[in-house]
Amino acid sequence: MLTTDTNPLDAPGTDPFEIARTAAAEIAEFTGVAHHDVALTLGSGWGKAADLIGETTHTIPAQDITGFSAPALEGHVGTLRSVLTPDGKRALVIGARTHYYEGHGVRRVVHSVRTAAATGAKTMILTNGAGGIKEHWTPGTPVLISDHINLTADSPLEGATFIDLTDLYSKRLRDLARTIDSSLDDGVYCQFRGPHYETPAEVQMAKTIGGDIVGMSTALEAIAARQAGMEILGLSLITNLAAGIQKTPLSHQEVIEAGREAEPVISALLARIVEAL
Ligand code: 8IG
Q1: Whose CA is nearest to atom 3 of ligand 1?
Q2: In whole numbers, what is the pLDDT of the chain averaged over residues?
Q3: pLDDT tens-digit map of 80-130
Q4: CA nearest to 151, candidates 89, 226, 202
Q5: Is 198 an annotated catalytic residue?
Q6: Is 215 touching ligand 1 by the criterion CB < 6 Å?
Q7: 12 contact partners, CB below 8 Å, separation of at least 6
Q8: Is residue 222 a part of any domain in this protein?
Q9: Which of 150, 153, 212, 228 lies 20 to 30 angstroms, CA to CA, from 88?
């Protein structure tokens, strides 16, 4: 049983950016690292990637840091790690994503991104496991996110905050990723609310409106990262073809297996991207 948590992000009148600064100060205090250069959120299938990026010098249970939520899955420990790369960069590795479908509100969903920005990170690498709409994407294929369609009908921005989202997923960083793997394809990511997978009709809708990838994260986080002034790289691991594109029903087990098989390849890819930043 998870205990009921109180979170300052949920209290009326609080400032999510101030809470993110508090969280960043706690991370700096815990790690002794005053400044992180890059942050990575590791989604389904990407969990092992941090080990290849460099040496993990500190591991923090996420819920020890202000504003972070207890993990949604029982037996699952969400951690924040400080990783020292071979060339001396500091990476903040977020292994504790709060999903929109958990229903705790969008402030909690984007708190890790705002905290990463407050630690000094100028680059935000958002990864996820997702369904593919392009039939030639076999499970285990990593793809670059070129743009997104936010189907949550929500936003991390509060009030009359107008933020330009042109080139949200940095062309410069996509090009850099392709210097490492020239075969990387790209696509438009559709964030659905979840946690159910789509119906085949919804997947056809996503395809019709220009989507290539279906998932349950990332878009809201990317908006918050842009608001915080970060440069964003988005990577999806296609763990299954979307409903109706593949002929068999979707299973969580299949998703886990595709992730596990792809793990060494995508971990190495991510490590080389971080090295090249
Ligand atoms: I892994 O097919 C994974 N996550 N919405 N649809 C959505 N999210 C996903 C899917 C999928 N596969």
Answers
A1: 130
A2: 93
A3: 999 999 999 999 999 978 999 999 999 999 999 999 999 999 999 999 999
A4: 202
A5: yes
A6: yes
A7: none
A8: yes
A9: 228
| Distance from Cα 260 to the centre of ligand 1, integer Å | 16
Number of domain units in the chain:
1
Domain that holds residue 156: 8-276
* 34/61 Cα distance (integer angstroms): 19
Tokens of 12: 């009326």
- 211 neighbors 133 (Cβ within 8 angstroms): yes
Prediction pTM value: 0.95
Which one from 26, 74, 158, 198 is the annotated catalytic residue?
198
Which pLDDT tens digit goes with each residue over 156-201?
999 999 999 999 999 999 999 999 999 999 999 999 999 999 999 9
Pocket test for ligand 1, best of 205, 214, 248, 256 (most atoms within 8 A of CB): 214
Closest ligand 1 atom to residue 259 Cα is 1
**Residue that wins the pLDDT comparison between 249 and 148:** 148
Name the least confident of 3-17, 117-131, 146-160, 261-275.
Answer: 3-17
Q: Are 239 and 129 in contact (CB under 8 A)?
A: yes
Distance 8 CA to ligand 1 centre (A): 30
Q: What is the pLDDT of residue 1?
A: 42
Asked whether residue 12 is domain-assigned, the answer is yes
Structural domain contains residue 106: yes
Quick one: angle between helices 252-276 and 171-180, nearest 10? 90
CATH classification of the domain holding 144 = 3.40.50.1580
CA of 52 to the centre of ligand 1 (A): 26
List of E strands, 164-254: 185-191, 213-215, 231-241
27 lines ligand 1 (CB under 6 A): no
